[in-house]
Amino acid sequence: MTSGMKDNNNRTTIYVGGLDDQVNEQILHAAFIPFGDIVEIQIPPDPASHNQHRGFGFVEFEEASDAQASIDNMNLSELYGKVIKVNLARPIRIKDGSMRAVWSEDAWLQKYALKSADPNVPYESDENEGDKQQQEGKSDATQMKSPEQ
């Protein structure tokens, strides 16, 4: 699908939104074939419902002019009783920072990094803290009187 989305003048993939539940790839193909040769049609399924789609799809044409003609003629038209919206599809953009290491995030650093950046201050991890509590618990237990006394 991304092969046809180069720049605004050469993009060949269109977005078709507002699809009725009955619309499938064959119906979408039949609706858009009058505008030019179609390379691929995708209708993403709804993960919650295995039998239905999410109400939109993508049609990739061979030529950018065919994609534009389909937009000009099909946008706000009716398909299976519903008004559809047809636009140029937007390229998938990787979220800024999605390829960054987890330790570059402040939240990760606050949770897992050293509590003190000062090398002169000794670091005590949470693991040692558990040992301290166990030792304190033992000393408290040894000082407690048994119920027999």
TrEMBL record:
One of its GO terms (molecular function) is RNA binding. The keyword Isomerase applies. It holds the Pfam family RRM_1. It comes from the Eukaryota. Residues 130-139 have a biased composition (Basic and acidic residues). Residues 12-91 form the RRM domain. Residues 119-149 are annotated as: Disordered. Residues 140-149 have a biased composition (Polar residues). InterPro entries: Nucleotide-bd_a/b_plait_sf, PPIE_RRM, RBD_domain_sf, RRM_dom. The keyword Kinase does not apply. Keywords: Isomerase, RNA-binding. PANTHER family: ATPASE E1, RRM DOMAIN-CONTAINING PROTEIN. This is Putative peptidyl-prolyl cis-trans isomerase E.
